[in-house]
Amino acid sequence: MKHTYFTLFFCLLSLLLGSCDKNVDDFYPPYNYNYYIAFVDESGKDLLEGISTTLSDTKLPILEKGTYSYVFIPPNSKDQFTFSGIIELENVKGHNALGIHLGMADWHLHKKPEVITHNFASSFIFGDDEMHELVSYWKFDSMYKKADLVRVTIDNVDARIEMDTYKFQSLAILTLK
Q: 2-16, 33-47, 58-72, 115-129: which range is least confident on average?
C-alpha cells in the first residue's frame, strides 16, 4: 500500500511539474512579409536589366552595396522585426525582380501590421537619388496563419500584383513614367 501511494505521489508530481503555463499552440513561427517587385517603363522595358549585383554568401545575386539605399520604417507595434538589409535580384516570370524579405517574430502577442513601409533610393531604377516610399499592404489569413500581399505602391503609384507566382510569393510589377 505504501508503494502504491509513493507511485501515485510521483505520478501526480510529474504531472504538476511537467505542465507548462504556455500552450504548445502559443509558439508560432514568425510571419514573413515576402514578395518580389519588378520595375518597367511604359513600353514594358525592364528597368532592372543591367543593375550591378554581387553574389551573397549563399551564391544568390544581390544588389551591390552603394547602388541603393533601403530603410525599413518599423510600424507602430511592439513586435520584433528582422530585415537583413540585403535585396536579392531574381528572375520571376520573365522579369528581373527585387526580393523584399521581412520577418516579424512574436506576431501572436501583438497587432499584426497590415501596412509595411520602406524608403528606397536607386539612381539606376528611378533616375534620381531621392528616397521613394515603398508601401506594401497585407491581409491576414487566420486559417492558414499567413499574410497575403494585396497592394504595393511607390510614391502612391499602384503596382500590378500577380499572386503567389514564385516560391509562393507574389510579384508586384510597377510601371514608372
A: 2-16
Residue 16, helix vs strand vs coil = helix
**Cell numbers representing residue 149 in the block:** 500581399
Q: Find the DSSP H helices in the chain.
A: 2-18, 123-126
The model scores a pTM over 0.85: no
Residues 26-58 pLDDT 10s: 444 556 788 999 999 999 999 999 999 999 888
Tally of helices (H runs) and strands (E runs) in the chain = 2, 13
Amino acid at site 69 = S
Rounded Cα distance, 133 and 69, in Å: 12
User: Is-contact 79 27, C-beta < 8 A?
Assistant: no
Share of the chain above pLDDT 90, in %: 43
Closest residue by Cα to residue 98 from 61, 66, 72: 61
- Give the count of beta carbons closer than 10 Å to the beta carbon of residue 70: 18
Residues 6+ apart with CB under 8 A from 47: 39, 40, 41, 125, 176
**120 exposed, middle or buried (CB, 10 Å; 0-12, 13-18, 19+)?**
buried
